[in-house]
Request: fold
Amino acid sequence: MRYFIPEWDDRVDPDFDFIRDKHSKSHNEDALRNDVYMWEIFGIKDVPFDGVLVSIAAIQENKSKYAKILNEGIHRYLRLPRNFEIMADCGAFSYIDETTPPYSTSDILKLYSDLEFNYGVSIDHLVVPMYRDQNEERIRITYNNGLTAFEEWSKKYKNDFQLIVAVQGETISDYLKMYNDFIKHGITHIAFGGLVRSPTKFILELLDALIEEIKNAKKRPEYLHFFGLARCDLFSRFQQLENFGVHVAFDSASYLRKAWLSSPSAQLNYITPDWRGYSAIRIPEKMKGEKKNIVQQSVLDTVGQECLRALRDYDQELIDIDGVLEPLTRLNTIIQEKPQVLEYYHRLLKDRPWKTCPCPICQVHGIEVIIFRGNNRNRRRGFHNTWAFYQMLQNPSLWLNCARKRQPDSAFQYIESLDSLHRGNNVLVITSCTKKKLNPAGKVIAPAKEMYQGMLFRRVREYAENMGFDYVIISAKYGLLFPDDMIERYDQVLRSQVDIQNLQPAVEDRLREIIDQYDRVVVIAGINYRRVLENIWNEKFVFLKARGIGELCSIVARSTPARDHSLDEYISLS
Reply:
């Protein structure tokens, strides 16, 4: 199996001064030229992946960067040898909201050739629930683009790069039909897209069906790529495909980004090849968001430096674990971090995983790697995580240790009132759909905020609108909805763990697009809807605790300012 890592300008200052927290002169003069990529740290022979994936949409966002790539070619720009595999695709998520992709096949094939990519993917269009009425057309666009690209590539570019034809679908039969049609046309390199949001159960069923197709087929593909599917649960199926002589590859930057995106409670900022995970020790340079003014910068600087010195002394065994936890506890109090993180820090400091790690990041920088502070520490920790994942990938006996961690309901951070929230706070409220909807006797289409008529939803809507807070709705059918999203009446509800797992990808992906805009996220919903969020929740999230829907309604009503009493009367009578 081959692993490709997406290219997102993941570079660090090679001469960063960790003691003084200062960038080097070369970085300040020209960071683009003088900062280094992961492969320049590990060395091209030991880099922890097999190729790089480049999104055309992403590189075109920065005009100066794109101009350099056009002038130098992709390998020279990334400072990689010509024989190191670089794949390009169009970046379908960038135009997910468009009716048609903004590229033509002829133009994109010429660009792949001009920039000297090793692989280029045909233009696809994502098939997603939010545009279900367009799914048939999006499948048709992807299919026609694939055939057109293969025909033109065969005539003009066969000696320049290897074409990979993209497959999209909504159902397993959609994927298999397009795959089989491409195989009949002589296409040997195929990529499965649009699955990154899909539940693992669905993907496993698709892979099992694909394995059966290939096992009994006269024509087999040479290469299959699975976009975004670096899930350990899938590796045994990938291995089965390889046993048939099919080269399998996938891409993902998730292990790199866990270094700074995973919440402390997830304990996945630093991972080991045997899949032990740890929370990095947070020593912020500056406070941001709602905590921006809770502590003077001079105090933060002083206590932060005490913590850094203590960690380095601990690393050299000059002080014991209590000696380093003392300043960390003081800092934790000052920055109003949850007390539980100190337990995570204790576990990390006790185990000292950086001491035994043979990767060049830990070998050179030691304890600095496990400190959550600025790009040069956090991204290096991401490089370490990528290395750890690659070691695990190459050792099948470790695959079972690599499982996506889920947070139990008991780990949620609860509040029992909304008194701590005030008008003007930067808050997102998340609530759930309700069984009671408009026009129970017939078909109706309406904005989500009008469709739901249950008491809890109406209370939450009134509260959010009066407080000036944004709010979104978890829908058992549609995923995450904004108040003005037009939806059709439905009767679907969340009943089982399978329902929750099936809904999670759609909710998580849309929520990730907006979550960074808010300082706090308040969840006012029942237990099943809270569990939909268990993979994405972090320290921003709080969950309103109550003994039932009735008590939730009462708490929200008491906290709603300038309430419309006519609406209250209407609710009480309904």
Summary: Residues 135-156 form the longest helix (22 residues). The domain at 409-573 is CATH 3.40.50 (Rossmann fold).
